[in-house]
Amino acid sequence: MPIFQASLWTGSITSAPPLRDGQPAWQRKAIKLVGSIWFEGLVIAVIVLNSVAIGVQTYLETGTRLSRTIEVFDVVLVVFFAVELLLRFVAHGLSVRAFVRNPWNVFDFIVVLVAWLPWINSAWTVLRVVRLLRVVRLLRVMPDISVLMEGIRRALGPAFSLGSIIALGTYIYAVVGYVAFADVAPEYFGNIGEGMLTLFELLTLEGWNDTLSDLRAASPWGLIYTIAFVLFGTYVVVNFVVGVIVTSLEDAYEAKRGVSEDDMMVVLQRLEDKIDRLERERDTAIADVTSTEEPATP
């Protein structure tokens, strides 16, 4: 059995394991504590306070009274998250294998561990990033986050194939642009690299009207070339990308439901057919019994 078999989505910010028969009393108490609504609410509130403290500290100068107060508050938060992590470890029966089976537990352990390293306190940028990573835990209480992550995972394969096609098409278009405009507009198509950079800017519609004006003034083919690529990028490429993402999300939602609506309709239709067949067989059997029991006419 693989260690990381749990889903990234647990529906709970504390990832409390379920209660089972045979668990010791101390573990059951830890599970009830970690899985309680008030405890999860407390953890969420502390994470939000941590996020607010990070934002407030960006407005303060180092060494001020309020800045030192926030630093002390951050130490208290580190201790709180360490105790909370220890309680979750106890809730998993002090089993390392059961604890690391959930990737969120591993993530929280790394964040807490890094915050306790001595050299982190002297590296202000690293410390701020570590503190900010705690906010990621709020994703676990957002509805349907697992569906979104699964949709992104499903979209990676088609997106890579689509990206390869787009890159190939852009490269071919850049070669055409180099042949047509290298002499008259070297700032845009002086080489293949410059040409692909120009086409990428056209894909993002960043200053495309300026590029259109310059190419149009440099060559009579500039208008057709630029408009054709802009239409290709804004309508074809963007719609393909959106289609891949939407399709992947729909597949992820259907996978979460277990059975799609079309499959459910097929199952219901089969059930209706079986019910109709059973009713016909019942009516036939009743008719046979009735005809057998009727007395003969003298």
UniProtKB/TrEMBL annotation:
InterPro entries: Ion_trans_dom (IPR005821), VGCC_Ca_Na (IPR043203), Volt_channel_dom_sf (IPR027359)
GO CC aspect terms: voltage-gated sodium channel complex
Gene3D superfamilies membership: 1.10.287.70, Voltage-gated potassium channels. Chain C
UniProt KW keywords: Coiled coil, Membrane, Transmembrane, Transmembrane helix
GO molecular function ontology, one term from the record: voltage-gated sodium channel activity
Places the protein is found: Membrane
Record-annotated membrane-spanning stretches: 38-60, 72-94, 106-130, 159-181, 223-247
Predominant localisation class: membrane
Pfam families assigned: Ion_trans
Protein name in UniProt: Ion transport domain-containing protein
Source organism of the structure: Parenemella sanctibonifatiensis
